[in-house]
């Protein structure tokens, strides 16, 4: 996105309005938001009374008709995990341009697969109670917030559906919002606002903040927090959405590992085995994955190395494990060096 394009988006977002030639679609007031919610609830109730399926009922019907399968649901979860792993790998290998290029291709493929599955899963959403109610709510909002020459529009030249499509088209993606949030001209405006408490949005005194405005505030705050973090990633990572997502994911996993590790250590203290160098635990498959995740990269490498050695040799005494031999050799070397001083 070029600077003049960012200027246009920032200026438009600050007004809170969406423009279609001479028409202006204004943000809702608090009272209008309440009325729109009432329209949604009334629509759900009416649709349910008329026998329209809810979203949950539609999901069950799709499975019964063979239009959706439990395996596809599990596949979405697997793809989401693979996407997270790819993003973390991107963050860790951000200096390796060749690896980054390959990971970007893999990540792009995973995102497309997920999108295809989500599209299949939600293909009939518009025919559900919730889908029809969401359309009624949006239609009501457009009908009550579209103006021509400061008067409510009569929808003669453009119908509600046309203006609704135009309105929805102006909801920016997360990627677009993130680019605005970390670059000029918004960055200076945001900094000035924080220091002087200046007015950022023209509609904030009377109307609700828009979807774009809310997302811009959220991401601007997140970028501030990243810069203030002692573990802040380099600028190259911050400027790449997928790499930064990888940093977020890795930070979250790290906190989870540390919390789980502390819980485990507290448990071992109670069992009087906290001083043990290694702890072996009986566990089911789910617990096994959780315990494995408690290991750092070195620990995971050691585990893989041990499995490979055991698979190759059949059975191995603990002191014959490669990592233990290296450890003993290192200890012997340190003792020899210590005696020589």
Return the string of H and E elements: HEEHHHHHEEHHHHHHHHH
Please count the beta strands (DSSP E, at least 2 residues each). 4
The shape, in one word, is extended
The computed structural class is mainly alpha
Strand content: under 5%
Contiguous helical run count: 15
Helix content: 55-70%
Report low-confidence residues grouped into runs of 5 or more: none
Oligomer: single chain
Give the spatial strand order of the biggest sheet: 1-2-3-4
For the record, give the distance between the C-alpha atoms at the N and C termini, rounded to a whole number: 64 Å
Largest sheet: 4 strands, antiparallel
Rounded to an integer in angstroms, the radius of gyration calculated over CA atoms is: 28 Å
* Overall average pLDDT: 87
Features:
mainly alpha, single chain, 15 helices, 341 residues, four-stranded antiparallel sheet
């Amino acid at each position: 996105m070029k600077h003049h394009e960012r200027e246009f988006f920032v200026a438009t977002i600050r007004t809170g309005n969406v423009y279609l030639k001479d028409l202006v679609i204004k943000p809702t007031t608090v009272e209008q938001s309440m009325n729109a919610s009432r329209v949604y609830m009334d629509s759900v109730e009416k649709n349910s009374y008329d026998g329209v399926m809810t979203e949950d009922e539609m999901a069950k019907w799709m499975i019964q008709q063979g239009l959706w399968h439990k395996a596809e649901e599990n596949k979405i979860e697997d793809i989401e995990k693979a996407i997270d792993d790819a993003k973390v790998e991107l963050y860790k290998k951000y200096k390796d341009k060749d690896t980054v290029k390959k990971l970007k291709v893999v990540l792009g493929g995973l995102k497309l697969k997920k999108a295809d599955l989500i599209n299949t899963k939600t293909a009939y959403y518009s025919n559900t109670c919730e889908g029809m109610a969401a359309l009624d709510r949006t239609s009501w909002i457009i009908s009550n917030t579209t103006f021509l020459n400061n008067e409510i529009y009569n929808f003669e030249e453009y119908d509600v559906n046309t203006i609704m499509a135009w309105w929805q088209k102006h909801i920016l993606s997360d990627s677009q919002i993130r680019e605005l949030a970390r670059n000029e001209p918004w960055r200076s405006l945001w900094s000035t606002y924080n220091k002087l408490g200046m007015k950022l949005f023209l509609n904030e005194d009377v109307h609700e903040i828009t979807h774009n405005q809310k997302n811009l505030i959220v991401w601007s705050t997140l970028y501030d927090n990243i810069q203030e973090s002692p573990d802040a990633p380099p600028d190259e990572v911050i400027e790449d959405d997928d790499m930064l997502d990888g940093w977020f994911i890795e930070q979250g996993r790290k906190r989870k590992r540390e919390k789980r590790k502390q819980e485990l250590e507290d448990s071992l203290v109670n069992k009087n085995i906290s001083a043990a160098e290694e702890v072996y635990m009986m566990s089911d498959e789910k617990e096994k994955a959780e315990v494995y995740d408690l290991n750092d990269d070195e620990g995971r490498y050691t585990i893989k190395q041990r499995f490979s050695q055991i698979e190759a040799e059949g059975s191995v005494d603990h002191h014959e494990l490669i990592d233990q031999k290296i450890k003993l050799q290192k200890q012997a070397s340190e003792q020899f060096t210590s005696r020589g001083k």
